[in-house]
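Posted in: Protein Modeling Q&A

I'm a second-year student putting together a small comparison for a lab meeting, and my supervisor asked me to include a predicted structure for Peptide chain release factor 3. I've never done this before, so apologies if this is the wrong subforum. The sequence is pasted below exactly as I got it from our records. If anyone can share the structure token output, I'd also love a short note on what stands out.
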Amino acid sequence: MTNRPDLPSEIARRRTFAIISHPDAGKTTLTEKFLLYGGAIQMAGQVRAKGEARRTRSDFMKMEQDRGISVSASAMSFDFDGHRFNLVDTPGHSDFSEDTYRTLTAVDAAIMVIDGAKGVESQTRKLFEVCRLRDLPILTFCNKMDRESRDTFEIIDEIQENLAIDVAPVSWPIGVGREFIGCYDMLRDRLELMDRADRNKVAESIKINGLDDPALAQHVPAELLAKLRDEVEMARELLPAFDRKSFLEGHMTPIWFGSAINSFGVQELMQGISTYGPPPQIQNAAERQIAPEETTVTGFVFKVQANMDPKHRDRVAFVRLASGHFERGMKMVHVRTKKPMSVSNPVLFLAADRELAEEAWAGDIIGIPNHGQLRIGDALTEGEALRFTGIPSFAPELLNSVRATDPMKAKHLEKALMQFAEEGAAKVFKPTIGSGFIVGVVGALQFEVLASRIELEYGIPVRFEGSQFTSARWVAGPRPKVEAFAEVNKGHLAHDHDGDLVYLTRLQWDIDRIGRDHPEIKLTATKEMMV
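Accepted answer (user: helix_wrangler)
Welcome! Here is the predicted structure, written out as tokens:
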């Protein structure tokens, strides 16, 4: 798609991005500060706040607030610097990585948050690989510089070696830990100073003429200044200069240093996104590529959240608009069922607060309240039959059987499980023989979250028990062969919530045996959520 026309200004000012990191690198705190600078909130909350007054806005589930972790991706929209930011905060905990992988299909860039003391951690590496697969541009924020952290060159080396990406420093830290006083802005030759006294105060920026400006000595102690001059000179010699083209292609990441909890470095990072970040990008569908400037409205569901408002049993489908100018009340076609849908009350999210969206443009993320019609992977268009590609569903690594402690509530339990399956929070399998359900998840913590949500949202106490099966594979192949295969392996078969056939296994040996005995049958560990 070369020589495309310029994007309409409303679309060009959109920036849709996710924040990814290892747990505890400070991702939710950074999200809070983004909202503070975007004018969306008056006072940034804390993940472990005392009292109700200053809770983080992006962790809205009861369990998230109790544990101080994010277990579900949440979307927020706000304006900053003439741009509309659509920010998706993702869970860092590896047990919820599937939610994160799916979220990355709906954004145009990612901010990778790294802890200054720990560097590149395992979950960061995994998430980075997903960004790499999709060629997402990545901006890096090295957080917690106000604590004892590692040498700046060491951190940059580790990112370059571990992630095989060029790193271009955009700011350079002055001092570390207790001595950390701020950063030197390498692109604009400015001094950014941190105020430790007031965490919600915006850092002051002092204009100077390069590192030789005598005014620097008034703000920076002599030994730190000498070190800063040496390091910046070395960095300019040894490290590549920032190149936007290389960044947008996914080969280079600009890095900012700062301290999210002290509101430091956050504003510079936000300016970096608005200045250099990509506008809404072309989306891939099975039939063709969809450009954001097209006039017809298209979009896809990348996440479903049940019971965001426990009083109303509602389910909100998060839709990323791929093209066009959407207006409230529009008639859209739900491609999977071929039915028209009137979208009369779409919402824009400000974390747990929402407001009616009168209009939205390509790149925006809107929520559509519905009663279970919309599923992950569904496409909404003005009539064209499109199937968006690349939204993955992974085979679960842990399987448990589940039963309600009160047998009278078995029917209600089925309904609750189906809702969670459609939300993508778990896989639910109905074995062909016997009663009950088998629930599959990626990480053990998800069982706890499910049990607590089923009890809180549906009033059904449940018990998860070990299952004889250890993994699940989707079955594919020519129909007569699949039927013959199903006849012989009844004890191992189940259906997922879409009705697709699943083979439940105990050992790798089972999978190898199927490959030997039934060469035409394919067992796969992922399924694309296309309709």
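A couple of things worth pointing out for your meeting: The longest strand covers residues 298-306. The chain has three domains: 9-276, 283-381, 395-528.
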